[in-house]
Specification:
Elements (H helix, E strand, L loop, with lengths): L7 H6 L4 H10 L5 H18 L1 H11 L8 E12 L5 E4 L31 E4 L4 E4 L11 E5 L9 E5 L12 E11 L2 E10 L5 E11 L3 E8 L9 E7 L11 E10 L12 H8 L5 E4 L3 H4 L22 E2 L5 E2 L5 H10 L3 E6 L3 E2 L3 E2 L3 H15 L6 H8 L10 E4 L11 H15 L4 E4 L17 E8 L1 H6 L14 E9 L8 H16 L4 E6 L3 E3 L17 E3 L4 E3 L1 H11 L4 E8 L3 E4 L13 E4 L1 E7 L5 E8 L5 E8 L8 E7 L18 E5 L5 E6 L3 E8 L2
Parallel strand pairs: 1-32, 2-13, 2-23, 13-16, 16-19, 19-20, 20-21, 21-22, 22-23, 24-25
Antiparallel strand pairs: 1-27, 3-6, 4-5, 5-12, 6-11, 7-10, 7-12, 8-9, 8-11, 14-15, 17-18, 25-26, 27-30, 28-29, 30-31, 31-36, 32-35, 33-34, 33-36
Helix pairs in contact: 2-3, 8-9, 8-10, 12-13
Bound molecules: alpha-L-arabinofuranose.
Length: about 700
């Protein structure tokens, strides 16, 4: 997480008029960004005096006296750049029960019994029996222990078994079909095993199926369960039980179990697949890429728990699993191929983060073996199924066709590495990847928000910048990318960003900060090629306590076992992503209302001076095919704003268009599981448009105005 680094130029920026700023910026536009920063700061010191009058006027306006209407000017004759077609994507890692208890369909928690080697956590005994972890009866080297169930006291009237409450409940709806499976081996036992989903309080059985004969060495057993006409509930548990105590000649039977699994219907009916409702929410955003598997998750808390991709492929029972840096066990059921299938299902490209020989315990190791591992991983993703080793492995795992891949990121947030070993590690990865895959764009994790740390020995194709901020900080920084160099060959990936206001999911204040920020990324998407919000998911079932489902507040999409919803920030992003255009139009503005903001103190406890920050943000893009202009206007103020819009350089502007508006009556208005659509975009006809028009933009709103032009 980045800790609020601020260029001093940004402080200066807020103190001069647009006019002064533009003249300065255009003078230094084509210089190296670090040199540029010094020049701007120097020039601004001089310019501040000259702009004192303008400043005084802006302060005066913000005080609300004699306020002139804000003016937004769009130059339809001036295309300043192409909107990056891949600007909006998704970022994912195992955090907040994103896959286990989230997107990944598995409903049984701790299906492999490896969450704790001492106890069968999340499992309980049913009936008169004892259950225990047994390291002497492993299924295989990956799942190297099992759960032992003593059946000796089982009777028809009083079965014995094990129960699992899932991830804060097992979802039950009418007419749902589940696939249950388990591995079992027995001693002195031969008989039926029943699996069921039952109501936790009433013990009413909602779905049931029986394997008639379980006996002998390790074998996989599978059944299908179906619910009837039932009320939707998550107040449920899964029960595996038997009524038989032993075999014909022995009364004291034992069953060992491993990989006890229950799957609901999945998106596209993929066997080891994903929850359909969450896939649909994401799909509605039309994301262009998926950055995976992290985030901290790619690094791991230590070497043992890094994301070791080779241990995440093939049959799920060959995946040992590992502990997520966010504190809970991952079975790695969501492995490399599942990430790629997810991309395919939502028509996204992977942005593949490879392990870069550095872990979160601040240790780095010789990179050479991991460079090789990364090359093999790229081959697994893209290699030919017939002529490459890892392409053939992918085909064996079920996907003969290679996946498209353009971006590979080396590590994550390596500015945390106190030894500064990234320069060298990046160079090793960069050279090897470029040598074998010259077409790939290689991303460095050192962005310009850490200017003293950017990689120098190689020219990364992109750098990954991370911004976690509050609403005012997002607004104060929304114009930052206007100042980046246009000639720098290194482009920008905003690989993690979010306005962290509202929990578990952001509220309208978050959506406004995000929207202001997105106008800046979109207006500069000639250099900001890709971007993704983080974190994307949160299981909202249990927000506090030791066994909490949330590790990081303010996440884009929330869910429990039964249902899911998008936050206001989700809808804002969906609006940007689905109404994008392909040309960035020149814009200018006057009389933008501002308000005073006191930035929070820095790490040394020094509170920076108060600044004026804008309350209205905008950008304009156009669909070159149809001439449709998308004017995005963010009004972050508490009152509606009458804004003059002027469109120059268009042969004609139609008077009727469309407005898509996301608005709230208070900053803390939000969506929840109970009120999932309290804040959603509304579409309305927009009239009175033209080359020059005035429109009222509601308080606390994001509006996308679709203006038809010739
Ligand atoms: O998004 C949550 C975490 O924030 C990511 O894992 C990490 O990259 C960043 O610090």
């Amino acid at each position: 997480m980045q800790l609020g680094y601020q260029f001093s130029e940004k402080k200066m920026r807020s103190r001069v008029s647009d006019f002064v700023w533009k003249r300065l910026s255009s003078r230094v536009r084509n210089i190296d960004p670090i040199m540029k920063r010094s020049l701007i700061v120097f020039s601004l010191a001089a310019a501040t005096v000259a702009s004192a009058q303008t400043n005084a006027l802006e302060m005066h306006m913000s005080a609300g006296q004699n306020v002139a209407a804000p003016v937004l000017q769009i130059d339809a004759g001036k295309v300043t750049g192409k909107v990056s077609p891949t600007l909006y994507g998704l970022m994912t890692e195992e955090i907040n029960f994103s896959y286990e208890g989230g997107l990944y369909g598995e409903l049984i928690r701790n299906r492999t019994f490896k969450s704790s080697v001492q106890n069968p956590v999340f499992w309980s005994a049913v009936g008169d029996t004892k259950i225990a972890i047994d390291t002497n009866q492993p299924l295989n080297a990956a799942l190297n222990l099992s759960l032992r169930l003593d059946t000796s006291k089982a009777t028809k009237e009083s079965p014995v078994g094990i129960a699992n409450g899932g991830y804060w409940g097992i979802p039950v709806k009418s007419g749902m079909t589940y696939r249950a499976s388990f591995y079992a081996r027995t001693k002195d036992f031969s008989g039926p095993v029943t699996v069921a989903i039952e109501n936790t309080n009433s013990h009413q059985v909602l779905a049931r199926a029986t394997v008639s004969h379980v006996s002998g060495g390790w074998k996989k057993y599978e059944v299908t369960l179906k619910t009837g006409n039932v009320e939707a509930t998550k107040n449920t548990r899964f029960v595996l039980s038997t009524t038989k105590s032993g075999s014909l000649f022995h009364k004291n039977g034992t069953i060992w179990l491993q990989n006890v699994s229950l799957f609901p219907p999945t998106f596209n009916n993929r066997p080891n697949g994903n929850r359909p409702d969450i896939m649909e929410i994401m799909g509605d955003m039309h994301p262009k890429f998926l950055r995976f598997p992290g985030g901290n998750y790619v690094e791991g808390s230590n070497m043992k728990d890094r994301f070791n991709w080779k241990e995440t492929i093939g049959d799920v029972t060959q995946r040992p699993g590992h502990r997520s840096p966010w504190g809970y066990w991952s079975t790695d059921g969501m492995g490399l191929l599942e990430f790629l299938d997810w991309c395919e299902d939502l028509h996204m490209e992977p942005v593949l983060a490879v392990f870069a020989a550095y872990t979160l315990d601040k240790k780095h190791v010789d990179a050479a073996p991991y460079v090789q591992e990364a090359l093999e991983e790229i081959e697994y993703v893209t290699g030919d199924a017939k002529t490459t080793k890892w392409g053939a492995q992918r085909a064996k795992d079920g996907h003969p066709a290679p996946f498209p891949l353009h971006y590979v990121e080396v590590g994550n947030e390596d500015w945390f590495d106190p030894s500064n070993s990234y320069e060298e590690r990046f160079a090793q990865f960069y050279d090897a990847i470029k040598a074998k895959y010259p077409q790939l764009k290689v991303i460095s994790t050192m962005g310009y928000e850490h200017p003293d740390k950017v990689v120098k020995s190689r020219v990364p194709d992109l750098v990954d910048e991370h911004y976690y901020r509050n609403q005012e900080e997002m607004m104060a920084h929304a114009l930052d990318y206007d100042k980046y160099s246009r000639t720098n060959p290194t482009k920008i990936f905003v690989g993690e960003w979010a306005t962290r206001v509202g929990s578990p999911t952001p509220n309208m204040a978050g959506a406004l900060g995000d929207s202001a920020w997105m106008t800046g990324m979109e207006r500069n998407s000639d250099i900001v090629l890709i971007s993704c919000y983080a974190p994307m998911f949160v299981n909202v079932s249990q927000l506090n306590g030791r066994d909490r489902s949330m590790q990081w507040p303010s996440d884009l999409i929330g869910y429990d076992a039964l249902s899911s919803y998008g936050s206001p920030s989700y809808y804002a992003q969906k609006m940007f992503s689905t109404m994008r255009g392909d040309e960035i139009l020149g814009t200018d503005s006057q009389n933008i209302p501002t308000r005073e903001w006191r930035p929070r103190a820095n790490r040394n406890g020094n509170a920076p001076a108060p600044q004026q920050i804008r309350e209205v943000f905008f950008d304009a893009t156009r669909d070159s095919g149809s001439g449709l202009i998308y004017l995005k206007v963010v009004n972050a103020s508490s009152s509606a704003q009458k804004i003059d819009v002027q469109i120059n350089g268009a042969a004609g502007v139609e008077s009727t268009g469309e407005a898509v508006v996301l608005a709230a009556s208070a900053l803390d208005d939000t969506n929840t599981l109970q009120e999932p659509t309290k804040i959603v975009p509304r579409t309305e006809k927009a009239e009175g448009l033209g080359a020059s028009f005035t429109r009222e933009f509601p308080a606390y709103s994001l509006t996308v105005l679709k203006i038809k032009t010739r």
